[in-house]
Structures are given as C-alpha cells and as structure tokens.
Structure to design on (415 residues):
C-alpha cells in the first residue's frame, strides 16, 4: 500500500473504533512493510486484543501489543486521545512496561515515550504527515527500533537544572533581606503550583498565565506579584474563584496562610523560564533538594536540614521495608496458589469456597500494606517518606496485578 492510498482510504473512513482498529493497523503494516500480528514469528509477543489486568484490579484488552516495543490503543474518529493514553497507562504493568505507548483515532497519531527515569517526549502527527518519509521512518522505529525514540534527558538531570534555577531566585530573595525560612516556604509553594498545573489540578495553564500577566508591567512586578500570588494562595487554601477560574481546595498545610514575597522583574523572568518545563516529568524529590538550598547555609546545621539523594535513601528503604514486605507477599501468594490448587472442582477450576479463602488472604495482605507506618527520624525534607510511600504503592500495584492474574477478585482496594 502506498502512502497516497493509505491517506486517501482513511481520510474518507468514518467507522467506530471496533470497526476500524484492526483493519487500520493491518493497512499501516502494509504501508510500512511490517508483518501483522497474525504474521509474526512470535505470536505470543505480538497480538491484537491483548488481555490485561489493570492496576485498579479490573480487566481489559489492549488493541495491539508488541513485546518490548509498544502498547497501542485505538479510539473512534475525533475521540479524546488523552483518555486513550490514560487507558494504556492502566495496562502498562500487564503489558510488561512497553517503552512506547501509542494512541490513534485512525487520522491522528500520538506516541508517548514510557522509559523509566526519563523526561517523557510526545510525537504527534496526522494522517497527512504519513506522506513524508520522516514520519514513516518514525513509525518504523516504533515497530523495529523503539530505543531510537528514547529521550536523552533523565528526570534527574532536569530536576537538578530546575533546582539550580530556583536556587538563584532564592538567593535574590535572601539578598533583599527576607528570612531564609520564609523564602523556603514561599518557593516551595511556587514549586507545588508548577506541579499542580502540569497535572491539571490548576487548569488551563493558570499559573503560567498569571506570570505572563505580571510580565506585561515590569515596573510594578514586585507589588503586583505579591498581591496576585497572595490571592492565589488564599484561594488554594480555601477553594473558590480566582478571576474567572475555579480553584480547588488544597489541604495539608502548605497554604496555611496567604503570605507571598515580592518578586523582582529578573526573578519573574527566571520563573517564567522554569514554568515552561514539563513539571509532571520532574522528580518530586526536588522539594527536598530545594528545601536544603533555600535555607541560609550559615543556619543549616542549626536547623538540622540535610538533603539525602534518592539513591542513598533507597539503600535504606529497600532492605528495611521492601525486602521484608516482598518476602511476605511471596509467602502469601504461594499459600493462595496452594488453596486454589487444592480447591479445584471437576472442571479444573478453583471452587467458590477456595476462591473466597484466597481472596480473604489477599484482602488481609492489602490491609497489611495499608497499615504500614514509616517513621523518618531525621524529619528533614520529607524525601525519605515520599520514596517509602512510592515504593509501597509500587508493591501494592504488583500485588493487585498478580492477584488478578490468579483469577481473584479484589474485595477492597486499600489504596
């Protein structure tokens, strides 16, 4: 099939997802001179309608899956591709963490990189772009050489760059005479706003638009920035209207008052540059990094602040917390498998009583995970607690996926 034939056929097509998906993918394989799933050497590793268990415990099917390459989800024409991507994310564990996640409505294509510890990149193109050899080569790499799409920047590199820029703003505020504790608290609020915006808790680029509005009248930036940021923080604390925007209520104490510090024009320029980063790709442990750097070095020992990088923290979390809980789960899982094996009925399937007993053990272990309490004796940046929680959630996802694969239903998800 030529590019012109492919574009002409699918530009005129008006089918539902179910009617179009497999034929569209097969035609794409013909265009790229790639084998279809039914022509694959390893049919177990390349298939239509790959059965999966989602991380929320329910089941589903990925439209196309190729081991070590991609998970692919179709939606009907003009559908919301963001929702298709969210669906693939739920499938990711069961699909063996493919490096690429692809979504399409037959006329639009979006490729998300999915490597751990890299800054995600998105390749977005349309049906007409397939007329260009470069676009077709990009898709061939999806099938044959996904590693060529791996982003060069790691999350750690981008996080360190952002921390460096924020440290410069912190130094400018300290030079203006603001107490280091107030600088730390104020700038951590700013960091939180950047995260919140890029995960749509602050919607429609609200924070970036606020910064752009401030930049239009540079001579009044300090007074206006203090006033507008204070108003934003107040609305985040209570929830409510901020201009024409509705602000959610943010609890937890970060916005326990509405105090904001004045930013000069140069600091505002730095902040606008920082805000253009994709903060959803930045490691949340940046809070700990910044907490340390925002404090006055002369008072750091007195305050007791010390930042430990994630790798060193995991040298404690893994043996002290994870290793023991993983061993517990392996034991529980073996006991559940034994219960199911001994309780098989004549048709070879586990009987209701056996499933009920195994599910009771599953629920007990999930409750055990939910009840784990982690103490951080240093009481510093909070990175130890964050990484411990993240590790526990990863283990919880593993438990859910492996239990569903055993045919068990989740009575209660203790997330």
């Amino acid at each position: 099939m030529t590019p012109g034939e492919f574009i002409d056929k699918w530009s005129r097509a008006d089918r539902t997802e179910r009617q179009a998906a497999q034929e569209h993918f097969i035609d794409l394989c013909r265009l790229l001179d790639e084998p279809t799933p039914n022509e694959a050497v390893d049919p177990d590793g390349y298939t239509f309608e790959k059965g999966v268990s989602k991380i929320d415990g329910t089941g589903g099917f990925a439209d196309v899956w190729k081991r070590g390459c991609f998970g692919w989800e179709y939606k009907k024409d003009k559908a919301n591709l963001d929702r298709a991507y969210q669906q693939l994310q739920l499938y990711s564990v069961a699909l063996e963490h493919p490096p690429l996640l692809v979504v399409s409505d037959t006329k639009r294509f979006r490729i998300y990189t999915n490597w751990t510890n890299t800054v995600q990149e998105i390749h977005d193109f349309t049906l007409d772009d397939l007329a260009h050899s470069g676009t077709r080569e990009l898709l061939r790499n999806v099938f044959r050489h996904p590693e060529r799409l791996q982003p060069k920047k790691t999350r750690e590199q981008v996080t360190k760059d952002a921390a460096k820029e924020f440290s410069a703003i912190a130094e400018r505020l300290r030079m203006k005479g603001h107490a280091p504790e107030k600088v730390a608290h104020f700038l951590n609020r700013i960091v939180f706003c950047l995260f919140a915006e890029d995960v749509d808790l602050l919607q429609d680029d609200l924070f970036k638009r606020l910064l752009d509005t401030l930049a239009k009248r540079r001579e009044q930036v300090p007074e206006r920035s203090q006033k507008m940021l204070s108003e934003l923080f107040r609305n985040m604390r209570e929830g409510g209207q901020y201009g024409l925007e509705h602000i959610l209520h943010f609890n937890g104490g970060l916005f326990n008052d509405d105090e904001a510090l004045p930013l000069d024009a140069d600091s505002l320029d730095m902040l606008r540059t920082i805000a253009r980063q994709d903060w959803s790709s930045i490691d949340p442990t940046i809070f700990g990094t910044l907490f340390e750097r925002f404090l006055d070095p002369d008072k750091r020992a007195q305050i007791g602040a010390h930042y430990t990088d994630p790798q060193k923290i995991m040298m404690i979390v893994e043996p002290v917390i994870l290793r023991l809980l993983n061993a517990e789960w392996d034991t529980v899982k073996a006991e559940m498998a034994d219960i199911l094996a001994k309780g098989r009925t004549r048709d070879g399937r586990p009987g209701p009583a056996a499933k009920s007993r195994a599910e009771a053990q599953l629920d007990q272990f999930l409750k055990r995970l939910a009840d784990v309490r982690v103490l951080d004796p240093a009481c510093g940046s909070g990175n130890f607690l964050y990484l411990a929680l993240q590790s526990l959630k990863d283990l919880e996802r593993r438990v859910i996926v492996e239990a569903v694969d055993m045919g068990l239903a989740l009575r209660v998800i203790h997330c």
Q: What stands out?
A: Strands lie at 46-53, 59-66, 70-74, 100-104, 108-113, 122-126, 240-242, 245-247. The two ends are 48 Å apart (CA to CA).
